[in-house]
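User: Some background: our group keeps a shared notebook of sequences we're curious about, and every so often someone picks one and asks for a predicted structure to add to the entry. Today it's my turn. The entry only has the sequence so far, pasted here. Could you supply the structure so I can complete it?
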Amino acid sequence: MIQCATSLWSADLTRLADEMRRVEPFSDRWHLDVADGHYVHNLLFFPDQVRQLRPVSTLPFEIHLMVTDPESWIEPFAEAGGDVFIICHDSTPHPASLLQEIKRRGKQAGVSLLVDEPVSVLEPLWPWLDVVTIVSTAMGIKGAGMDPRVPDKIREARQRIETLGCPCVIQADGGIRRETVPLMAAAGVDYIVPGSLMFKEDPATMRTWLRSLA
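Assistant: Of course. Here's the predicted structure to add to the notebook entry:
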């Protein structure tokens, strides 16, 4: 069944703890976008905030580092309670070294691919990947539609994982809508990153619908 890394960016940011408690029974982990105002033109989530949120939930915290200097943010977010770290492939000249550093800390490691980045760039990285995040819209944009190439990228990543026998999951982030999730499901996605789909709909009804796609 497709699992949910629920995006806290779409929650009521003035009531984060309450929002987390409300949808936690229907979520598998929390997705926290970290934005520094440089890599993307947003400012989102910071270590002290994550530290304050950590006691609210026992679900894993997935930290998506949309920053220009991901190396400097691994330790602060790990100490704050991060469990899974996803770096943007183009944000560092040494993605393999950074993934290995994340793994040495006992955390899960992942890479996100921009819409125009091919799956082939992951070839040197598969030994250290726990998560591949296929970004379905322009990075850092809310409310945009899914790029039509995304299902094929998911299929390509799925075929590569099966060929290599990697214990890696595929996640789709962005453009998560009622009309797009079935396409992602058919392509072989493991996780979606629901925002409004979780917080603006009835979460129990949404998860029942999601189970029907399996």
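Suggested note for the entry: The helical segments are 16-23, 47-53, 74-80, 95-104, 150-164, 181-187, 196-199, 203-211. The chain has one domain: 3-211.
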